[in-house]
Amino acid sequence: MRATVEPSASSVEEIANLAGVHGGVGVRARVYAYPSARGTRHEIVLEANGERAIIDVPRGESPRSLAERAMTIFADSVAVRG
Amino acid sequence: MSQPRVTNQPQRPDRGKELAAPTVLVVDDEESFHRNIAKYLGNYRRVNAYTGWQALEALGKYHVDVILLDLNLPDTTGFHVLEQVRQEREDIEVIVCTAHSEIRNAVEAVKKGAFDFLVKSYENYQNIHEHIRRALEYRRTKRELIESRTQESWLREAFTQLENTKSDVLALMMRLAKRVADTPLTVLIEGEAGVGKEVLARYIHCRSSRADGPFVTVNVSAVPPGLLGSYWFGHVKGAFSGADRMHIGKFELADGGTLFLDEVGDLDPEAQARLLRVLQEREIERLGANEATPVDVRVLAATHKRLHEEVKFGRFREDLYSRLNVLHVAVPPLRDRAEDLPDLARLLLRKHANRIGRSDAPGLGAGALDVLRRYDWPGNVRELENLMMRMVALARAEIREDDIPPEYWLPTLNQVADDYVSRWPAKANLFYLATQQFQRYLIRLMVARSHGNKRLAARSLGISYTTLKDRLRETGDAESDDGDVSQIRTPPRIAHPTPSSGVWTPLDLGAAAVVGSGTRPVVGRDVSGEGQGAERKLAEGSVRRPSLTEAERGVADAAPPHRGDERRDRTREDE
């Protein structure tokens, strides 16, 4: 998995934008931060081969490292689905 | 008073209740105790015993749930009876009820395995119902514990079997499942009913860091929509009329563990919105509560539907689908992983043999396995499990092909039907000929196997005696004298021409369904090689040739091409 980190745009919500290729499948992950009653909650949006998945990051979990792990798994899952 | 007496038996119309009501064996030598306790036992079925010997006899004779046991008995002591009960029966709870209230008696009774120790007093008599209820509750918990231990060991074996699957598709899925297990990612497991989606979900849970937490299963389609809020999120006391105590919902029960949402494709739109909110916010609101409760739950979902199609048709929310479908695992149906079938069948045999206390699971004969391999298993692993359960009940050392119920043989017939239909696509009366001939063959075979006893044959076939006689008459197989059935012999094997020689050779039962002596014109001139299919399948072993008895084989070899020859053969044999 080769992932490049693109600096986030000025939007306060998007905190990371990762892209990479895994197993021949291009995959992109965007990490968003939302304000909520119990502090900030994070959401990862994964995209590969036209498929999309959303991960609501559990509290205490690092959104960035979860996004990196999720990208490879998601790419494999999409590859299997064909 | 030489026999234990059963009292308080409900009347006939309440037979169901009688079976459902727990039975209490009251063991005491004083008639007054029996009279007094009877007043307070309510609906429990009661068996009275006046001596230790009677008590032990009653245990062999009646289904007993709880024993009320006196310590002073005319022929032995209550402790001795207690020891005997504990040695032989784990499923009965014993409440010692005595006038001797010394502490040492209580200690000894509990040490010997009594559930409770009561002193004979009116207060205790009045509460006896509650004591028995608690004993029954304790027994239920004990059983659940044993069940869950059995379940755990079976699951470990099932996981090993999954990991060592010989199916390439499943192996790929298992690799993905293994990788995703120790992440908080949601997984959507798709597959036909009975493929083992829950086992896979448990596998993911057990391989995750949440393995020590609870695994809570919710069958979404089984929850009425009106109750879903309370069922998932719980309610506080007084939230609605009838909410007389606080109830904890499934999400909270799964806190720190995994929530498995089975049949998630059946969620209605309102429930989908509620689930989406929980997944996003990671908090729930009990009905009637003023504030939300945070929950730490990993969600695994399963469905037999194609969820992306449900999304396409607008029946399932896309945003929820995107959240559930981070990892998509499609469990292949059993027919697509036939290579796993032998190991799976043996595993299930072991599971059910253990469950009924058999130390050795029955083996699976090669013939039986061959039948199982040919079946297409529409009910998947669940159907295989049901069959294996039935096989264990046969209590054989090895399961033979004859033990497999007839419905599992049907694919053989299907193959033969395919073969013949492809050979004679334009034969207008093929259906009639096929069904008639098969019925005829089957009836005659069964009559012969029943040694000419037509009533027995009809019973074995599941048809009435009149129907059997009518069929025999229609096909000209009935003999003149109803009582004399000795003339009906094993039907001849139906002949089939080999392509090379045109010689008639016996064909299997399935082929007999379609061609036969009574339908000679259909195949009688088939020497052109058109009938190669069935023979080819026989040669390849894909169509089974049933084993023949020596008598059957003798007739089979002389299988006639039409009824006239057949009758001549019979006469020859009779001579």
Describe the overall structure.
Chain A has one helix and five strands, in the order E-E-E-E-E-H. Chain A is α+β, with helices and mostly antiparallel strands and 82 residues long. The longest helix of chain A has 19 residues. About 9% of the residues of chain A have low confidence. Chain B has four domains: 137 residues, Response regulator (Rossmann fold, 3-Layer(aba) Sandwich); 166 residues, 3-Layer(aba) Sandwich (Rossmann fold), CATH 3.40.50.300; 74 residues, Helicase, Ruva Protein, domain 3 (Orthogonal Bundle); 162 residues, no CATH class. Helices cover 48% and strands 12% of the residues of chain B. Chain B has 26 helices and 19 strands. The longest helix of chain B is centred in the N-terminal third of the chain and has 36 residues. The termini of chain B are far apart. The C terminus of chain B is likely disordered.
Please count the beta strands of chain A (DSSP E, at least 2 residues each). 5
Low-confidence stretches of chain A: 4-10
Largest sheet of chain B: 6 strands, mixed
| Morphology of chain A | elongated
Strand order of the largest sheet of chain A: 1-2-3-4-5
At CATH level 2, the architecture of the largest domain in chain B is 3-Layer(aba) Sandwich
Strand order of the largest sheet of chain B: 1-3-2-4-5-6
Whole-number tally of structural domains of chain B: 4
Q: Please write the CATH class name of the largest domain in chain B.
A: Alpha Beta
- The fraction of residues assigned to DSSP E strands of chain B is 5-15%
Roughly how many Å apart are the termini of chain A? 19 Å
Which percent range describes the beta-strand content of chain A?
over 45%
Give the helix tally of chain B. Answer: 26
Order of helices and strands of chain A: EEEEEH
Approximate shape of chain B: globular
Topology:
The complex is a heterodimer of chains A (82) and B (575).
Chain A: E1 2-6, E2 14-22, E3 25-36, E4 39-48, E5 51-56, H1 63-81
Antiparallel strand pairs in A: 1-2, 2-3, 3-4, 4-5
Chain B: E1 5-7, H1 15-20, E2 23-27, H2 31-40, E3 45-49, H3 52-61, E4 66-69, H4 78-88, E5 93-98, H5 103-111, E6 116-119, H6 122-126, H7 128-163, H8 168-181, E7 187-190, H9 197-206, E8 215-219, H10 228-233, E9 234-235, E10 247-248, H11 250-253, E11 258-262, H12 269-281, E12 283-284, E13 293-294, E14 298-303, H13 307-312, H14 318-324, E15 327-330, H15 341-355, E16 363-364, H16 366-374, H17 380-393, E17 398-399, H18 410-423, H19 430-449, H20 454-461, H21 465-474, E18 495-497, E19 504-506, H22 509-514, H23 520-523, H24 532-540, H25 550-557, H26 563-574
Parallel strand pairs in B: 2-3, 2-4, 4-5, 5-6, 7-14, 7-15, 8-11, 11-14, 16-17
Antiparallel strand pairs in B: 1-3, 9-10, 12-13, 18-19
